[in-house]
Amino acid sequence: MAIESAVGEVGIEQNLKQFLLVLSVSLSVATLPQVFSWFRQIPYTLLLVIAGLGLALVDVRLVNLSPELILAIFLPPLLFEAAWNLKWSNLKRDLVPICLYAVIGVVISIAGVALGLNVLAQLPLTTALLVGASLSATDPVSVTALFRELGVDKRLTTLMEGESLFNDGMAVVAFSFLVALPLGTAQLGVRPVLLQLLSVVGIGLAVGGLIGFGISYLTQRFDLPLVEQSLTLVSAYGTYIIAEEFGGSGVIAVVIIGLILGNFGSRIGMNPRTRVIVSEFWEFLAFFVNSIVFLLIGDQVRFTHLGENLAIIAVTVAGMVLARAIAVYGLGLIANRLVNSDISLAQQTVLWWGGLRGSVSIALALSVPTILSEREDVIATVFGVVLFTLLVQGLTTKPLLEKLNLLGDQPLRQQYLELVARQTALKRVLRYLGQIEERPGLDPEFYRYQETLIKGELQRLEEQIDKLQDEYPNLRTFTAEQLRMELLAVEADTYAEFVRSGRLNQELAPLLEDVLEDEL
After folding, report:
1. What protein family does this chain belong to (predicted)?
2. If you average pLDDT over residues 1-28, what whole number do you get?
3. Does CATH place domain 42-403 in 3.40.50.300?
4. Per-residue pLDDT tens digits for 184-194
5. What's the rounded Cα separation, in Å, for the pair 327 and 341?
6. DSSP states of 453-518 as a string?
7. Distance (Å, rounded) from C-alpha 423 to C-alpha 468?
8. Where are the domains of the chain?
């Protein structure tokens, strides 16, 4: 018994050392853009992949990356954080195209890759389908981070994030069915496929919805920021595990609970201070997990295997890119016709090229059963394609945005907001100065001198703000949108306050949302 305990302690100590090593490398990479300005041109997650590739090149393996580790430990917080920050008001506008991309788009992606591999690379159909299913899940973390940094239109970010969140669940469901075919535990047919799809998706929706609304109403009863923060963490992992135990999709369940808590629970059950605390916690956790995942993706590459499967990887990349184009442009056209989505050709092009593959694809490939002889080929192919999307598509997305004139005006907006913040601060200083005008011992001449200095600085700031607004008329729209969001937040917080105090038994629907949309 003592020997077993000692062995267990050694194992824990070894795992802790590996974890600290991975974390140290990740944080070291994170500091590079601050030390060397050239690295700021590369998204942080891609820097991590490149660093991992460097380690793999010299055969330094930080840790063994298992599918269970990604799916059960890394995936829930990444999904929850993205869903928590995805506003329902933005999502519902494009729900139809997002669902088309996430459901029919997954089918097109699987079919395109499988057809190319089966016809051109002569791979068995079952193997080709497994590769297609593994690569049907988009993971545009690097691209959406770049969008936020550059101030790209929020709608484009919502389309890409929304599709990724929902198609992750569909990809896992499709993969689970296809991996059962060569094992003889599933039947290929329309009816069994639909039954399994409805069962897995339905259970995921039910579990995520029940737990999400349950926690939302529970947090109305108390105001304990740390407890509420902990509840969101437990709910992310707990929902995933419970849904999987009942035979549903843990991915879909986590997405649903994240959407509910981010858009409903945080309004009726959390005060503004708590919401900020929880949001900052999940921002840190997403950064932390992404730092580990993307470094390990690069570190797990086996260059020998990639070289042996180079032809298959090339065929897969071509099939995936072509299938993605058919899905994005074809389904975009349908959405524009059906519900007048008005997704421009330029936006569709970014959605096509920015559909990177990442951690979910790696996890699915690694989870192929060892009894299948083609397992190593599937893993090598998926790793190769993931590296192509991250390094080639990921690094060329910014030039594509520039070419299509979709770059936002984030630096200009930041400059404008800094001027407004300084103006607000100086006005408060001026008001405070007026309150102490009669302070005993204060020389009136000194008071007037200080007042003149502050007023002069205020006038200079106002001139700079007016000049920016004249030169860039879009700033007026931005200012109006900022005010609209502030007013809507005040309205929502007021309803939440009434619910918490017991004066209302449910949160009211926003009254000003449509009114302010028309006015501003």
Report:
1. Belongs to the monovalent cation:proton antiporter 1 (CPA1) transporter (TC 2.A.36) family.
2. 63
3. no
4. 665 666 677 77
5. 16
6. HHHHHHHHHHHHHHHHHHH-THHHHHHHHHHHHHHHHHHHHHHHHHHHTTS-SSPPPPSHHHHHHH
7. 14
8. 42-403, 410-519
